[in-house]
DNA sequence: GCTCGACCTG
DNA sequence: CAGGTCGAGC
């Protein structure tokens, strides 16, 4: 049987990542093994390559550098047995629901002894020349063994075997020292050594000291451990079931829910197919996986490639190409789920590793749908595209109703910048870290403060909210299906989950950026301060440093802080003037002649743009004074453009001078550290 | 020489 | 949003 690199198994690749990146997330093995064993995890062509330009480079290891000689310890290449091999392994596991039945270690590890021989070999090099004996071994059906005479390739193979062995012998999913030696060698010193070694670099290969596999006479122990692995698999099955149920519930509640779409169809198709080949246990797993996928699908709001797939499913080819369709859907979804999950967890588990994990795999371009800006579609009314609304009595006469050639389309950012927070955050505190990913997801689903998130995502708040300011409408409420005030105590409880104050500050900003009411003088500006500064911009465009000091009483003003605040306002002005110029030019191009036609009202496009920038949550009522200033600014720009003054390089300066005199009084509520809530509440 | 603000860039 | 540059004003 010819070996084809296309047959390499991504699930095992991911497992390899887990092992290498810290030996801490062993429970993943079970998950991926099940995914693999289910037969539904197939490689998306090119998705998991380490090197995009190299169709054969699937090895995350290849980027690691050997600490001794500076060379890549393992070159890219083909070292994975075909997936059918692993599939048979997993199937074997799954087909033995009896936890007491022992698993033959050699079934998992066909070249066990030779691996041992490899690791028993001594020498300065990690893989000595003795390893070449491996080339005499069966090569997983590869027809041409000569290519494996290369030392590096042998090393690869041995390494993968080592990983597989780790899978088979390790009972505890959360034991960090996955490949530790036996107890008698577990001196504290060694533990520390491994710990530090892990921190220094992602472990790219197991040294002879670190592999228990090099020790003969361990088969019985390994059998016990295989037993435990099986138990773990069953536990994972159970967790998967729970997870699936959890996520499928909202799907089943509504007939019109999106799970009736492609994923529902995919589930049906797959269940039918699997019924022919998998035993009940496997079916349950796969079914639950699909439920999970359905949930993921629900949480998608737009821009999913799946919609294309969905179209493919619903078309008439369904009966003739259902296999490929099913495969496509599942591949896409699985890869997304797995990649995101891996990234999330590894980021948390190994925060010190700079090249993890989004970079580590040259990640498959799993597109978490961008929350970036979109541009107005063709349906947008021309009268609102650019313009501050005309005064009503003139609108009928001066409004442009046709789009002139070359009419630029501007972003309607107000709608688009609403952040999609569909992702259920994985809270990786020390308490939950040990529970494995599924437990975490369950935890998140049940207890997490964002527990409603998946459902929210499935039915996001209407984007077409009236553009009038909505008081008391915090962005937290926007993100909750059933608005619940987030009280201080709750915020603090979140804080307790964070490892550090800085982390909380970050999370705090991410949640809503409402300044944490505190008398504590902060040494640095927070996202809350930024938000406050933006709102202050509605009142003042050119604040002095003394004014800023008067309004940021909870900040310890240093030179750095002051300049940062000044810089913020500089950036605010920059955006403001850019928008003014843009809209003024467009008005000019549209044939407006009278500057008095230009009025920035609350439902004008310009206002939307500005409001989105400075008042993202739309939870602050923009003062009328700002509208007046904006209108004046727009007219000044318009007048200058109309008069051809923009030919002068410094034509904006007079405008800046005018606008700088229009600063108004900032409400005193901004002075209090909890000003934002007060300001929002009016 | 210093500060400030606009402008450019990543 | 932050860093750097440049010119203007004092």
UniProtKB/TrEMBL annotation:
GO CC terms of this entry: cytoplasm; nucleus
InterPro entries reported for this sequence: Homeo_prospero_dom, Homeo_prospero_dom_sf, Homeodomain-like_sf, Prospero_homeodomain
Plastid as UniProt keyword: no
One of the GO BP terms on file: lens fiber cell morphogenesis
Tree of life domain: Eukaryota
Protein name: Prospero homeobox protein 2
Gene Ontology MF annotations: DNA-binding transcription factor activity, RNA polymerase II-specific; RNA polymerase II cis-regulatory region sequence-specific DNA binding
Biased segments, Basic and acidic residues type: 182-195
Coarse class of the protein's main subcellular location: nucleus
PROSITE patterns per UniProt: HOMEO_PROSPERO
């Amino acid at each position: 049987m010819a070996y084809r690199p296309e047959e390499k198994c991504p699930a095992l690749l991911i497992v390899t990542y887990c092992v290498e990146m810290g030996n801490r997330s062993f429970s993943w093995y079970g998950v991926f093994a099940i995914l693999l064993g289910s037969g539904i995890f197939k490689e998306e062509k090119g998705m998991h390559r380490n090197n995009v330009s190299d169709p054969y480079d699937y090895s995350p290891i290849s980027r690691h550098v050997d600490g001794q000689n500076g060379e890549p310890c393992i070159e890219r290449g083909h070292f994975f047995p075909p997936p059918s091999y692993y599939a048979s392994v997993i199937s074997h596991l799954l087909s033995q629901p009896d936890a007491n039945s022992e698993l033959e270690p050699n079934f998992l590890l066909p070249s066990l002894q030779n691996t041992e021989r490899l690791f028993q070999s001594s020498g300065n090099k990690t893989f000595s020349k003795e390893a070449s004996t491996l080339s005499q071994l069966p090569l997983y059906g590869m027809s041409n063994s000569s290519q494996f005479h290369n030392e590096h390739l042998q090393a690869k193979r041995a390494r993968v075997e080592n990983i597989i062995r780790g899978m088979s012998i390790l009972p505890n999913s959360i034991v960090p020292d996955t490949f530790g030696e036996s107890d008698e060698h577990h001196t504290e010193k060694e533990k520390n050594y491994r710990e530090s070694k892990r921190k220094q670099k992602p472990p790219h290969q197991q040294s002879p000291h670190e592999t228990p596999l090099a020790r003969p006479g361990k088969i019985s122990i390994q059998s016990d451990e295989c037993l435990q692995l099986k138990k773990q698999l069953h536990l994972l099955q159970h967790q998967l079931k729970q997870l699936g149920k959890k996520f499928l519930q909202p799907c089943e509640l509504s007939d019109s829910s999106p799970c009736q779409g492609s994923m529902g169809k995919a589930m049906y198709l797959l269940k039918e197919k699997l019924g022919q080949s998998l035993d009940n246990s496997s079916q349950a797993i796969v079914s639950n996986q699909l439920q999970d996928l359905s949930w993921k699908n629900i949480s998608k709001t737009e821009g999913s490639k799946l919609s294309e797939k969905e179209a493919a499913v619903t078309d008439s080819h369904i009966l003739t190409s259902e296999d490929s369709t099913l495969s496509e859907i599942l591949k896409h979804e699985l890869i997304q789920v797995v990649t995101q999950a891996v990234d999330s967890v590894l980021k948390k588990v190994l925060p010190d590793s700079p090249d993890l994990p989004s970079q580590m795999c040259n990640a498959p371009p799993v597109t978490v749908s961008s929350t970036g800006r979109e541009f107005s579609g063709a349906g947008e009314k021309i009268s609102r595209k650019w313009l501050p609304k005309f005064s009503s009595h003139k609108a009928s006469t001066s409004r442009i109703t046709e789009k002139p050639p070359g009419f630029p389309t501007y972003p309607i950012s107000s709608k688009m910048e609403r952040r999609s927070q569909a992702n259920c955050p994985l809270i990786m505190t020390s308490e939950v870290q040990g529970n494995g990913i599924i437990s975490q997801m369950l935890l998140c689903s049940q207890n997490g403060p964002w527990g409603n998130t998946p459902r929210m995502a499935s039915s996001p708040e209407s984007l077409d909210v009236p553009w009038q300011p909505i008081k008391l409408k915090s962005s937290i409420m926007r993100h909750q299906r059933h608005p619940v005030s987030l009280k201080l105590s709750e915020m603090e409880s979140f804080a307790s989950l964070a490892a550090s104050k800085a982390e909380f500050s970050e999370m705090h900003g991410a949640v809503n950026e409402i300044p944490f009411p505190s008398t504590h003088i902060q040494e640095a500006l927070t996202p809350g301060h930024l938000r406050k500064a933006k709102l202050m911009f509605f009142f003042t465009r050119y604040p002095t440093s003394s004014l800023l000091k008067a309004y940021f009483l909870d900040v310890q003003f240093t030179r750095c802080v002051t300049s940062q605040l000044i810089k913020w306002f500089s950036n605010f002005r920059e955006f403001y003037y850019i928008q003014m110029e843009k809209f003024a030019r467009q008005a000019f191009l549209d044939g407006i002649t009278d500057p008095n036609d230009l009025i920035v009202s609350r439902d004008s496009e310009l206002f939307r743009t500005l409001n989105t920038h400075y008042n993202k949550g739309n939870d602050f009522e923009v003062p009328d004074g700002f509208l007046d200033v904006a209108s004046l600014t727009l007219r000044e720009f318009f007048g200058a453009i109309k008069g051809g003054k923009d030919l002068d390089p410094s034509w904006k300066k007079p405008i800046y001078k005018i606008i700088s005199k229009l600063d108004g009084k900032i409400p005193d509520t901004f002075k209090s550290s909890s000003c934002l809530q007060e300001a929002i509440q009016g």
